[in-house]
Design a protein that fits this description.
alpha+beta; Elongation Factor Tu (Ef-tu), domain 3; OB fold (Dihydrolipoamide Acetyltransferase, E2P); four-stranded antiparallel sheet; 6 helices; 21 strands; elongated
């Protein structure tokens, strides 16, 4: 009746429009209510576990795994010799090619020999003069001895003859030493390489005056290339961590601690000869905060050159019963790293883990997992605690050469 009274004041055209608007509004409200109910019902069905999420998993299988440690290193000659002039004089010739390999005894430089030959001849002449004086003294003593024995000459005259003979003998020995020194100085004018190695540039040119008391005596250097040293630095933190893992049984060292070493060149290729760790400096360097470790490696083709930067992988250690899982299975949370583990009734639960070092495409897990655990590898982004999953085994991804080469990277160089 109220509607009739109300519409009685509205023209017929307006009444029809008003009815259409009221019907449209009522229909829209009805559709919203129906949609909300369907959505809530669908969510309830999902929460009830009737639909599962498909994931791939790996089963944890501990095993002994060889590991390596990688560092940035620098090549050093096992013996580097400074070639210096041992006598003062003029440099006559350079007889080697700068940067070339030389052999033991090969002549590198030749100094002007004329003044040294003259000194040798002078010393030989002095020796001949002293030898003649010795002969006279010897004959004089031979005449005096029988006369003194027959009391034809005094004891004083015998003593004088004996003293002259002894003095002449000493003068001869001194002259011989002068001759030897002159011959030695002459030999020093021919400057030879004392080792097999690679030469540096010539620091003095032909015609220069070489003074043994000044820096001009430095001529060049010869560096032995085989064997070569490869030096790297071990930080204090790495050393302490290494010792801790050994004590806890997380790492097993090789017998007699004989670590081998693989050399990686700048282009990523592997040096064909394997080295050995031969020295570890027990003295701590306070300036760099590191310990020096040396690798000795054969270098017959002279591929490694002094001061060249390379990478070295120290091998021989084994992680006993190591737990490995793919890196993509590990996720980061506010409280640390965790993985999804498939528990009873195919429901997943988060498991906090303690990461070790990287190994190829995997992580070592120090704590948090045990043998037989099923860890979700793919499909973990939409998981929640208690989600029911459909399990499929994880496919092995092909290993890239780079990943296969980098076993356990502990490089402090920037990996």
């Amino acid at each position: 009746m109220r509607y009739a009274l109300f519409f009685g004041y509205v023209p017929a055209l307006h009444r029809s429009r008003l009815w259409r608007r009221l019907f449209a509004t009522t229909l829209a409200v009805f559709m919203v209510i129906v949609g909300y109910g369907c959505g809530k019902k669908e969510a309830t069905r999902s929460e009830g576990g009737k639909h599962s999420v498909e994931v791939t998993v790996v089963t944890v299988t501990p095993g002994d795994t060889p590991v390596s440690f990688e560092y940035v290193a620098q090549v050093q000659s096992s013996r580097q010799v400074n070639i210096q002039a041992r006598v003062s004089g003029f440099l006559d010739k350079r007889l080697y090619t700068e940067g070339a390999l030389v052999k033991v005894g090969q002549t590198l430089f030749l100094m002007d020999q004329k003044p040294f030959k003259a000194q040798l001849n002078q010393a030989k002449a002095a020796l001949a003069r002293q030898a003649a004086a010795l002969e006279v003294a010897r004959k004089n003593l031979a005449r005096v001895k029988p006369l003194a024995a027959a009391n034809a000459l005094s004891q004083r005259e015998l003593d004088d003859a004996t003293g002259q003979f002894l003095s002449a003998s000493a003068s001869v020995e001194q002259a011989k030493a002068v001759v030897d020194q002159a011959a030695l100085d002459l030999s020093y004018t021919v400057i030879k390489s004392p080792v097999n190695g690679i030469t540096s540039f010539a620091q003095q040119q032909e015609g220069a005056y070489l003074n043994v008391n000044q820096s001009t005596s430095q001529l060049t250097t010869v560096a032995v290339t085989s064997p070569s040293y490869v030096n790297f630095s071990l930080s204090e933190n790495d050393r302490l961590k290494h010792n801790e893992e050994v004590q806890k049984g997380l790492l097993r060292e090789p017998r007699d601690k004989k670590y081998s070493a693989e050399i990686v060149l700048a282009d990523g290729s592997i040096f064909p000869h394997t080295g050995q760790v031969t020295f570890a400096n027990p003295m701590f360097n306070p300036q760099t905060g590191t310990f020096l470790v040396r690798v000795t490696v054969d270098n017959p083709q002279n591929w490694l050159r002094p001061n060249e930067f390379v990478r070295v992988r120290i091998r021989g250690a084994v992680r006993p019963n190591g737990v490995l899982i793919p890196q993509r299975a590990v996720q980061q949370a506010a409280k640390g790293h965790f993985v999804w583990v498939v528990a009873k009734e195919s429901k997943v639960e988060p498991r906090p883990v303690t990461l070790g070092e990287a190994y190829k495409n995997d992580w070592f897990i120090n704590e948090g997992l045990r043998a037989g655990d099923r860890v979700v590898v793919d499909g973990a982004l939409t998981l929640r605690s208690g989600t029911v999953v459909k399990v499929a085994p994880a496919a092995e991804k092909p290993e890239t050469p780079e990943a296969g080469a980098a076993e356990r990277n502990s490089a402090k160089s920037g990996k």
